[in-house]
Backbone:
């Protein structure tokens, strides 16, 4: 059966939008058909009906047009893409079938509407271009990422092995990959792990082609060459990825992308590198357990008052600096704001009146800005003079620079303020946008639409004078429109030109050609006024779009001011100190506190601790002590304080000197990757291998309980060798928390290793954790005590004590610990392998040692030997 013209229109639009669910506008509803309807009914809770009830009914589901945004949000949150097909002509004016067009495709990486976005977080669309020729030894890949809602666009060339780390830093909501690199369309699986919640979108291989990308980028930026943007010949992979991003945005948005006005090369040299595992372990932007922002370092320190500031703070904290001058410039700005309470508070108060200018401008550029959006731009601009006044004549160079760059855009503000009503509507075509007095034609139409009281009064007076009927009245009703009413006592004076319309009990009603013409003008005046308002609104929007670059620069200044003020507010309220930043790889933190726990725990309950590393103070600190005592908290604390210092923030400590780190590595906690076939121990060793292979003398490494995923002897052996390698080969600052007390002997052979432990107080078989890091090695693990605190049954604890006593008796030497070998060479004979621990003697061996051979007869000796042989035969064999 042939499709109807409208269904053919639907099928054409569906073919154009691929796997996206198509929202097809039909009057006041959006409808979905076929499989789209089935999916939407399940995901969105819509009622599944059918069209053309018959032998082959078409599944259908729909909802009112004004609910579009809420249903889009739900659909995107459930991992789907959507396409919107709108009616692009007025049904009243259409001849035949209403014209419809695919106006946009919405996916997680292409959102621009506030209702679909978290204002505090960037929403990036990323693309990864793997090496084009995988067999030629090329090990570099290209990554590009853009935020449609703000216009920011970046590209980088990175080692292929670092793709996962870069994606973890960017945390895109959607990632594009060539079909050649994801061979399965049904279950697309990238050759690298994606961050949790990131949608993978397969794209044609040609969209990642270098020539295609170059042509697309040059056309968009109107450039003959991209050299001026800072890219070189070695960045071909980065440009391929950037081209794929731009192609996807052009295809899905069907709108102008002029707000994406630059492609910025991302260079990691000036930024501190943190791999994906370390970001997760340190809970920088997401918690490990729930994956939520709440509870992370970012959420805890975020005191920003604008969405732009919140997103910029997230960028700073995921991209700490390594440039000493840049760090100190931020520090100086924050410090000045900390010192001046009145300035800081007044600045924050002004910034609270600022709207999300970055995302407003994005909607302006893509033609989706509403009248309310323009009014928010106007209100933001009205706050700028007071903001600028607050930062005038500051001492800090960064604040002075921001004041200079804060463009007030007075002509844009004047235009918007004179044109827009105070409370603009969301929908542009319903009127109520433009102020009275802004446009004379609009004022006239509004007067007509309101009934033209002045015209009616004047016309009534003219007719009364011309006819001599003093009580002649011009009136209006919905049935007959405008009319002239003359009482029966005066009807004989009615002019012949009057046309009788209606007879009432006491009067006659008439119309005139002039009154009829006026009535037609009044009836159409409201529609014409709304159309004129819409045209004036479009003109205003275009004027804002023309100044988008200036406004974007202003938005960037506001965001930086918000972040600096936020960090100052945090520092003032939490007694943070400005750290001394140096190039030397040292670390001296006095009374440091964990940035998250210090705020989340009750005031004054967090126990501060020192950390001193570098030079004569040693480069490796071994921290022993019981579980639950605070080892993991302490080493994370040091890493987070270092990270805060390198974003330019003040830090939670009494004093601090921090040598700039080029990388922070954190291996804390157990995890597995079952989907990738990796056990907890395999993941632990993989992450440790990365640290050992990529750390430098300027790195900061924190490791917790390395080796616990295997047997005790294996674990101690690995931990021992890892510490030696960090000490001898890498020589980086290292905090190594462990429950292997045997490692504390390393101080005897490694000069830069220092022993510290978590202080514990024992009292009547109870253990009190003091959470204080003190010099020296712990002498116990207190694991059984911790088990008791956790609620392990008493009988299990008692039995564990018995087993522990037996193990200590059999496996420890006279000094109370296993006998460890020192680092050395193999025997020259090559047939002797040194063991880490001395093996315990078999009971038969001890009995042989005690046997007095001289007192035995030959027969007794033979009988005794047979007895011992039998005992050995009955002993369980040790498995390898």
Residues:
């Amino acid at each position: 059966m042939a499709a109807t013209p409208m269904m053919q229109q639907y099928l054409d639009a569906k073919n154009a939008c691929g796997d996206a669910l198509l929202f097809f506008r039909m009057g006041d509803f959006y409808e979905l058909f076929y499989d789209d309807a089935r999916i939407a009914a399940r995901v969105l809770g819509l009622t599944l009906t059918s069209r053309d009830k018959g032998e082959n009914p078409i599944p259908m589901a729909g909802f009112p047009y004004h609910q579009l945004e809420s249903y889009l949000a739900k659909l995107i949150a459930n991992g789907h893409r959507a396409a919107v097909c709108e009616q692009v002509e007025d049904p009243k004016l259409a001849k035949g079938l209403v014209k419809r067009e695919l106006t946009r495709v919405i996916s997680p990486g292409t959102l621009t509407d506030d209702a679909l976005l978290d204002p505090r977080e960037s929403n990036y669309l990323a693309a990864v271009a793997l090496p084009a020729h995988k067999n030629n030894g090329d090990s570099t890949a290209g990554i590009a990422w853009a935020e449609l809602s703000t216009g920011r666009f970046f590209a980088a060339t990175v080692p292929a092995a670092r793709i996962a780390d870069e994606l973890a830093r960017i945390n895109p909501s959607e990632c594009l990959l060539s079909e050649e690199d994801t061979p399965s369309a049904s279950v697309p699986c990238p050759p690298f792990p994606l961050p949790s919640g990131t949608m993978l979108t397969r794209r044609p291989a040609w969209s990642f082609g270098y020539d295609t990308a170059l042509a697309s980028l040059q056309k968009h930026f109107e450039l003959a060459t991209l050299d001026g943007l800072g890219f070189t010949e070695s960045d071909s992979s980065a440009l391929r990825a950037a081209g794929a991003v731009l192609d996807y945005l052009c295809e899905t948005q069907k709108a102008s992308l002029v707000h994406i006005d630059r492609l910025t090369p991302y260079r990691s040299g000036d930024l501190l590198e943190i791999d994906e595992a370390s970001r997760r372990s340190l809970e920088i932007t997401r918690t490990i357990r729930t994956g939520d922002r709440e509870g992370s370092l970012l959420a805890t320190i975020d005191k920003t008052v604008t969405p732009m500031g919140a997103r910029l703070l997230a960028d700073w904290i995921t991209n700490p600096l390594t440039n000493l001058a840049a760090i100190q410039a931020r520090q100086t700005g924050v410090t000045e704001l900390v010192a001046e309470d009145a300035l800081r508070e007044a600045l924050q108060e002004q910034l609270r009146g600022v709207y999300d200018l970055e995302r407003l401008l994005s909607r302006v550029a893509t033609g989706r800005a509403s009248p309310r959006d323009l009014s928010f731009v106007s209100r933001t601009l009205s706050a700028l003079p007071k903001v600028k006044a607050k930062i005038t004549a500051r001492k800090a160079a960064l604040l002075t620079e921001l004041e200079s760059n804060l463009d007030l855009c007075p002509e844009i503000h004047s235009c918007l303020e004179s044109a827009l009503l105070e409370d603009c509507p969301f929908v542009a075509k319903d009127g109520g946008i433009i102020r009275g007095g802004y446009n004379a034609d609009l004022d006239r139409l509004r007067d007509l639409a309101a009934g033209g009281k002045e015209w009616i009064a004047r016309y009534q007076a003219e007719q009364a004078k011309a006819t001599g009927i003093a009580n002649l009245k011009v009136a209006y009703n919905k049935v007959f429109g405008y009319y002239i009413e003359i009482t029966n006592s005066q009807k004989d004076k009615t002019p012949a030109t009057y046309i009788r319309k209606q007879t009432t009990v006491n009067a006659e009603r008439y119309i005139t050609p002039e009154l009829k013409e006026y009535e037609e003008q009044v009836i159409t005046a409201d529609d014409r006024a709304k159309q004129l308002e819409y045209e004036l609104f479009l003109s205003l929007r275009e004027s804002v779009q023309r100044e988008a670059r200036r406004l974007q620069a202003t938005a960037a200044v506001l965001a930086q001011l918000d972040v600096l003020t936020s960090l100052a507010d945090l520092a003032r309220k939490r007694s943070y100190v400005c750290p001394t930043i140096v190039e030397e790889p040292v670390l001296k933190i006095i009374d440091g506190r964990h940035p998250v726990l210090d705020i989340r725990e009750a005031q004054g309950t967090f126990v501060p601790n020192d950390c001193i590393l570098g030079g004569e103070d040693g480069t490796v600190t071994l921290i022993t002590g019981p579980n639950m005592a605070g080892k993991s908290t302490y080493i994370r604390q040091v890493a987070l304080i270092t990270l805060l210092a390198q974003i330019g923030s003040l830090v939670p400590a009494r004093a601090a000197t921090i040598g700039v780190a080029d990388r922070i590595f954190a291996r804390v906690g157990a995890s597995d990757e079952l989907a990738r076939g990796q056990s907890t121990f395999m993941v632990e060793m993989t992450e440790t291998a990365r640290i050992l292979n990529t750390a430098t003398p300027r790195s900061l490494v924190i490791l917790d309980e390395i080796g616990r995923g295997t047997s005790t002897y294996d674990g101690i052996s690995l931990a021992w060798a890892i510490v030696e390698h960090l000490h001898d080969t890498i020589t980086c600052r290292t905090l190594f928390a462990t429950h292997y007390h045997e490692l504390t002997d390393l101080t005897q052979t490694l000069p830069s290793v220092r022993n510290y432990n978590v202080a514990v107080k024992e009292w009547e078989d109870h253990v009190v954790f003091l959470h204080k890091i003190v010099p020296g090695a712990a002498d116990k693990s207190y694991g059984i005590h911790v088990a008791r605190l956790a609620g392990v049954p008493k009988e299990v604890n008692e039995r564990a004590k018995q087993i522990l006593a037996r193990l200590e008796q059999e496996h420890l030497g006279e000094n109370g610990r296993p006998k460890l070998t020192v680092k050395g060479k193999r025997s020259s004979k090559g047939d002797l392998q040194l063991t880490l621990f001395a093996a315990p003697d078999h009971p038969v061996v001890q009995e042989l040692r005690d046997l007095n051979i001289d007192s035995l007869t030959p027969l007794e000796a033979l009988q005794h030997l047979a007895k011992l042989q039998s005992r050995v035969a009955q002993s369980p064999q040790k498995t390898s």
Notes: The chain has 27 helices and 27 strands. The two ends are 74 Å apart (CA to CA). The longest strand covers residues 753-763.
